[in-house]
Design brief:
The chain is an alpha+beta fold. Helices cover 30% and strands 23% of the residues.
Length: 132
């Protein structure tokens, strides 16, 4: 996306900075605990949701995500349990009323980049509404 011909093809103005992988020098944000909680209530009974987290993510911790989801105070429909790819633990999953929370073992923020097979399996299970 940083090549001049690609930027021209996408009509990206020269004033737009070049693409960079997520890092603390390019992201400036402040924490807002309730910033997106409202949308979960709006979508609760209308759209199934998948919230996944790489369990070694240093930017958005799995523990913090789990606490945030617990703050929704939604009923647990399936308790915390491991899920597997090729007979190896790929992470853990817990289902709530309208939301699946799934961890991906041994990867961070870019889970699909580093655990492709497991993440594809996770997404297929979500789309098909089957067990992880």
């Amino acid at each position: 996306m940083n090549q001049a011909d690609t930027r021209a093809a996408f009509n990206i103005p020269s004033s737009v900075p070049t693409w960079e992988m997520c890092n603390e020098t390019t992201l400036e944000y402040s924490e807002q605990h309730f910033a997106s909680m409202w949308i979960y209530e709006v979508l609760k009974d209308n759209v199934r949701k998948l919230f996944y987290s790489g369990d070694t993510d240093g930017a958005v911790s799995t523990y913090g995500s789990k606490l945030w989801i617990m703050d929704l105070n939604w009923q647990t429909t399936k308790s915390w349990a491991p899920w597997y790819t090729d007979e190896q633990v790929s992470g853990f999953a817990q289902k709530y009323d309208g939301l699946d929370f799934v961890t991906v073992k041994g990867v961070g923020h870019m889970a699909p980049q580093w655990a492709r097979k497991a993440c594809l399996q996770m997404i297929e299970a979500f789309v098909n509404n089957t067990d992880y």
